[in-house]
Amino acid sequence: MIEITADMEAIIKQAILSFVATVNEDGTPNLSPKASLTVINGALYFADIASPRTILNLKRDPAVEINVVNIFQRRGYRFKGRALILTPDDDESLMIANWVRATNGLEYPVDHVVKIETTSITPLLSPAHVFARPPRSQDEIRSAYYQKYGVKPNGA
Question: Of 13, 107, 26, nearest to 68 (Cα)?
Answer without folding.
Answer: 13
